[in-house]
Protein 1
Amino acid sequence: MIKVIVVGALGRMGRTTCEAVMDADGLELAAAVDIAYANGDAAATDNLAATPRFASLKECLGSGEFDVAVDFTVPDQVLDNVKACLGKGVRCVVGTTGLDGARLQEIEAAARESGVGCLVAPNFAIGAVLLMELAKIAARYLPHCEIIELHHDGKLDAPSGTALRTADLIAADRREAPPVPGPEGNSARGVIYQGIPIHSVRLPGMVAHQEVVFGGQGQTLSIRHDSISRDSFMPGVVLAVRRVMDIDGLVVGLEKIM
């Protein structure tokens, strides 16, 4: 059995991840961590009566042996969380978005130093990964494109990690870079990143949605993915927990293990 810690267990993704781990063959939900457990009433809101629950990751890591920690917290916490886990020999699966290049470099250094694997994925939905791969192909032939990403109103980062990852992949694969269509930074043309406008929408009722629109002479091509519930991410999360057991160092992107 792979013993799993879920960090951020009372958040939207954390709750769904706890359920997925409990339902998956070969995985054991060995601990749930959330700062909200500092309030004694918080435990009454979950469905984890048989699972050890902790208000701090430090306390959790000192309580026993674990194999993998899945982190769905916030960007300001995830770096310290990952370093603490890797230092204890616990592999990490990180779904927290908003990590910049500097933080990823620190995670990579910590994983290399500890000799313990870590997977960071901007999106765990298989369909979203396929969208990014298809966008890479389209960009070779239709280099003009824009990205529209839509999420629930509680999402903290904008643009989303998925949108930034998509733009990085497109920029690396397209054969030419068209002129940037507007000023760098926030504007009515969106945030210009890698020469690609990214438009972010945050509204209640949404989960996670992205469309990449390509334009060429006399034609357009749209590639879209919609997560209509957080269950869409769980096959990818479970896959990541299993595959991270064989990873050395840092791997970024679910597509690397599919």
Protein 2
Amino acid sequence: MSNQQRPFSPWASTVVLTILTLGAFAPAASAAEFSAGEHTRKTIYHSPQTPGFTSWVGAWVMPDGSLMVSFTQATGPIEGRQPAPKDVQHKLTWPPPGQPGYDMTGLDLRNVHLRSTDSGKTWTQVSADSFKSCMNGVTNEAQTALADGTVLRGVFGFYLPYDPDLPQTGFVQRSGDGTNTWSKPAVPLDAAKYMTWPRRIRVLRDGRVVLLAGVARAAAGSQTRQEFSSFVEPALLISSDNGRNWTGPVAATIAEQRGGWTEEFDVAELVSGDLLAIFRRASDTNRWQSTLKKTDDRWVAQKAGPSVLPHSGQPELLATREGPILHVATSGIHSTSDGGASWHKLDLPGTAYYPRALQAADGRIFVFGHVGGDDAYGKVDQAIIMDIFRLKSE
């Protein structure tokens, strides 16, 4: 993938907001003063087909305390399907050269949603809306619940080339009935100016919503996937009306460091009110980290640098009610209580692929991911895995 950058105008690097992390902050304590206990792991879902394809998990807590998980499921024949048209293959730079098994054209693709009302003991499928694509996922990671029970999700419309009526950029949808039905797509940024890939949706303490996204300053659909990946920058979009309207993009990196990033990053609020940010880079295999500094009621991105955290996929951060912020990854779970200046590895196994983490009302931490990796269809018997543990003070 080329990382050559075209000229890029700096975005606004400040925004008036206060970032939420669910639950009240405990007094700061050293991350080394905490350990993990009561760890369990189990499979909560397997596709009706073997080998199964279930990938790209989202996870959140509903206002009533129930837990929800979402993921992409594909079923259908492994061989004998028609490939994507050549123009679609070119536009999406897909499937990867010499790997036709990644083309999902002709499969039954669904966004599956599960719900647990008994703290993860049992799970019930509540919905499975269908979509058509040559790609292996378009949403699920960017989903969460609002205080009124509305589920909000971000979808990468560029990955839906078989439906010309859909925006060819990131869009947001709402569900008021527990994910059974969804609203019409709403584009958060002007599609004539930006291509946007929603990656995370977080709810803020004051009720605002922040959408973490990869953004390229280009009209929707004007770039190939490879071009978009070369120009993308991590940014925040902010909504003060429950995701109906958005302001931004707010740059997550300083202007002098533009280039070489990906759309994959996450943020969590520190006790000080600053934002700890962890990034996945395109130009190297290091995790990078920085801080968005709070100055009065404004946020300013600071210079980023390599982190001691080991390389993995999409960063996942969880601010716990006990105080530490967790970095959750296949390479292990680390905690920090000093804004990322130091990280302490918990005595836990690495997670399933592309994990999502939440903390339930009883304090237990749940981590969801899928078996395997970014796999060609039919090559790995995937399933959805759940880890549960508690943080314990030493």
Protein 3
Amino acid sequence: MTPRLDPHSESILQEYRGKLPVFEELAARASKEIKDMLASAGIIVAAVESRVKTESSLAGKLELKGSKYSSLSDITDIVGLRVITFYIDDVDKVASLIERLFEIDWENSVDKRKLHEIDSFGYLSLHYICSYKGSDIRFEVQLRTVLQHAWANMNHDTGYKSGVEVPREYLRNLGRLAGMLELADEQFSRIRSELTDYRRRVQALVASGNLDDVLLDGDTFRSYLDLDPFGTLNRKIAAVNQAEIQEVSLMPYLSVFKNLGCKTLGDIDRIIKKYSDGAFQIACYQLGLTDLDIMDLCIAFLLRSGIGKAGIRMLFDALNGPSEGNEMMAEMLMEQAQDLPFMNQ
């Protein structure tokens, strides 16, 4: 049904029609600048959405409360943008950037996160009324988390939007779900904060040299690699082979060292100290068929520890994928390595 508008509301709607291209350009510009700003700050979000209120939506709004607005400029949500973050604490980070990017109408902006109603979870958005400096066109920017956004949409569809009164038992279940989502939102942020603190502690512990106290995992191994533990051996081998040292990711060796029985970074450090000479001999005799010092180091450990061909095959399978060629390479290494000095020490 087409809304019936009084002359005043109709004039506002007519003004909207004339400015529609301006609103569309504003939505695109603001959306792009927000995305660029987030990228520069290194903040990853779930989505940046933008929309221009449709004529039918605006007409419906004017039909209900057109007398509230003296002109189109009084309606602040013709252009609306929404930034959906993954974590609660990112909302404040994005808010700080928004405050620097746009002029904020503080009187009409609202932080709904300060609400304390039991059923307020899905509406805990931060709403900014913004404008560009020198422009009289205001627009809305909402900031909320993924879970808040999901809840708001679900509650909107199952609640007042349906046009019927929701039975109390369903409202109770919705309230319980809201509480679960709010707790999940808080826990996701808490876990991320704790992981960040853990990584900082790991970096400090690794830097201190107390490697026997550092359990081997992805974070600790990455921090250990930052110390360039294989650099000395790598440069020594490169000097003999007159090879150029190329940067490659050594993270795939995490599973290799675990399979070798390493539990801490100290275990890896001892392998480096004990088997570097063997790795150097393998490289000099070109038995390793590789320019990677770390692979030669693992081969030296496997040969000297008596693990033998099965262990070397496992190494090649883990790094290159299983193949029959790995069995042949392992057998060849076993045969040719017997006369190397480090095997008889």
Protein 4
Amino acid sequence: MTSKTIDQLLKEKQKFEALFNFATLGIVIANSRGEITLVNQHAETIFGYEPEELKGKKVEVLIPMGKQHAHQANREHYTEQPQVRPMGYGRDLKALRKDGSELPVEISLSYFHTDEGLFVIAFILDITARKQSEAILIQQKAELETITREIKLLNSNLEEEVERRTEALRQTLNQLEASRKELQDALKREKQLGELKSRFVTMASHEFKTPLATIITSATLIGKYQKTEDQVHREKHLKRISDTVLNLSNLLNEFLSIGKLEEGKINPKPELFFLPDQMKEIVSEMQSQAGDGKQIRIEMPDVGEVHLDKELIRYVMLNLLSNAIKFSPPASTITVRAFRKDKVLCIEVQDQGIGISRKDQEHLFERFFRGRNADNIQGTGLGLHIVERYVTLMEGEIKIQSELNKGTIISLLFENK
């Protein structure tokens, strides 16, 4: 194995470890004997353990006292008949920290097989904040009921002050209604975010199984090819690992972007930059991934500096080009063009792919939506939703022209500044 190949393998391994450790959900992987083999940093933080401290321990160390024996029986039954168990509401689950304290959690289970046997993945969500919000709502509801009873009693005993008390009551109820609406809006946002995370975990449970098994299997096989003449086999498995890690990276990046968007943490930072230079860099990067004789062409007459968020534009273009490559036939041409018309800057990505039906176009930018003719092509249904949100944040507009089996043109329109 050449030093360059080893360096590439190490870089890909480091990239996967970074994605695993920086996930915003706790992830614990255990073997069929219930021994913890891998834990990410978020899970170690949740449970209060030092790095590598949980490795090798039984998963029951994370189960509250008094429930460990029952959990062991359930775990052994699960390994006999493994199945994906998505997160769900209505079940009060508790986990045990190192210091002996307990915390409320939601847990989703998945599994995968390798040469070493069955491995179980637990995705763990700390719902302490949600439980606190629910407790606050219950307390405020009780306070509201108390206030209402007191107001009724005052009105019955002080009829001569009905007019003044009515006005005071009106003001109090207005304040309570405003407070109630704020709480409802906050809980609605929390519920939407929880549903998004739960839906992602269900999807990730499916999407993670095969890639993880592929990485582990390929890494194991590489070690068996030690002769010089085995270089072709080593390169094949290294490419499988690289492609798989790239897919996992895109999956996690989409989820992280959705999380930041929902929490309002993404604020555009416009700057002046030379658009053709950036587009050439992006096209060069994506051309190497195109394969099958696909070519990406740039058409940018009379387009120079633009005032936009450079990083958001980069994400948008990478996503649109990735889709164009994914849905285009071999030996086809994908065109990236930009031009100014009146006071509008237009950036377009055109492909000769499978196209999008008119009915599907109505829902194209919704979260998790996928066209009916794309069911057999890998994807999460998050990319175009994120693209549309980013374009809107930059005060732009996105339009689509498409016809089944004749290709698609996606246009980004920005006020020419």
